[in-house]
Specification:
320 residues; alpha+beta; Arc Repressor Mutant, subunit A; six-stranded mixed sheet; two-stranded antiparallel sheet; 12 helices; 8 strands; 44% helix; elongated
Length: 320
């Protein structure tokens, strides 16, 4: 069963461009985070260094080199930004305080979602995963048992209705079956999303998902393992309760299959009616990706504009 026995995965990876210029990689890294108004600490520059592996000591030496490239960056209260963007430090610190206050609620909803039948992984994604969110949205990625994506989604949406009573907006915008964890979209945006998402529940499934997507390390070679925040917010794993096991057995029947199919067809029709030219969505039996805002494309365009302003060529956005 996925998540219990980790079998080595043999994957033929594309050859990534060689990055021999550490300072250029640092500029790309800070420029990418600038798209999200997010200054970086030295440890974050290290973890999310784009396109090449380097130690923190090597990165610190490059940052403090005083070269013409590094002079395009600024350091303020321990945070690195593009020059002229120092005001983002105060914004990050304010958002950090807001985010820290929201994690108890995130853990509570995560615990409720994890208790649902067929749920195998609950992870926090998006801006909240790095405490860069000051709105009500709580973005979750949920992995389910094969053949139960849409039933689980329906149950999670019921939790979302309850959360709105308390001013929280649960946004479970990505559901995957545990049989479909190898992602087709292999680009810098998706690599960042995967490497910064914080698993709350289902660590075995999270590790399996990372192993099935080794291409992430072509974009972000240093971003191995879980983010540091995971150690303080992960939920304690517990054996499935008798009620959960019984419910799964009850719903793993012909009537349960009928409910799954009915919910899938009903919701796919509704969700597709909301799609626009900007949407980056996907709906089928094994996944529900409700990314209607076109954030991947917008991120690339904004990132490219920053690199052009810095005089840096864009490389390694998407694997072919």
């Amino acid at each position: 069963m996925i998540g219990q026995t980790l079998v080595p995965v043999v994957t033929h990876l594309p050859i990534a461009p060689e990055y021999t210029d550490l300072e250029t990689s640092i500029l790309r890294t800070v420029a990418y985070s600038d798209v999200f108004d997010y200054p970086l600490t030295v440890s974050e520059v290290t973890r999310y260094l784009i396109g090449m592996f380097a130690s923190q000591e090597e990165i610190v030496a490059a940052l403090l080199s005083g070269s013409s490239k590094m002079n395009q960056l600024s350091i303020t209260r321990g945070y690195f930004t593009l020059a002229g963007r120092e005001s983002l430090v105060g914004l990050r610190q304010r958002r950090e305080l807001v985010g820290q206050r929201r994690w108890p609620a995130v853990q509570r909803y995560g615990r409720w979602i994890a208790a649902l039948p067929y749920v195998r992984l609950v992870a926090v994604t998006g801006a909240l995963a790095v405490n860069n969110e000051d709105g009500p949205d709580l973005d979750f990625l949920v992995v389910t048992a094969h053949g139960r994506v849409w039933l689980c989604r329906g149950l999670v949406m019921l939790i979302g209705r309850w959360a709105r009573r308390f001013g929280d907006e649960i946004c479970p915008n990505y559901f995957l079956a545990e049989s479909s964890l190898r992602l087709a979209e292999q680009n810098l945006y998706t690599a960042h999303e995967m490497s910064q998402m914080v698993p709350l529940f289902g660590m075995d499934t999270y590790q399996w998902m990372r192993r099935l997507n080794p291409w992430v390390e072509l974009f972000l070679p240093n971003a191995v393992g879980v983010p540091e925040r995971t150690e303080t917010v992960a939920l304690q794993a517990a054996a499935p309760s008798f009620a959960r096991r019984a419910t799964e057995r009850l719903l793993w029947t012909a009537p349960g299959n009928w409910v799954e199919n009915w919910e899938m067809h009903r919701k796919v029709r509704m969700l597709r009616s909301q799609e626009t030219d900007e949407s980056e969505t996907g709906f089928c039996r094994d996944w529900c990706k409700g990314h209607f805002g076109g954030y991947g494309k917008k991120t690339r365009e904004a990132y490219r504009a920053r690199l052009q302003a810095l005089g840096v060529a864009e490389e390694l956005w998407e694997l072919k």
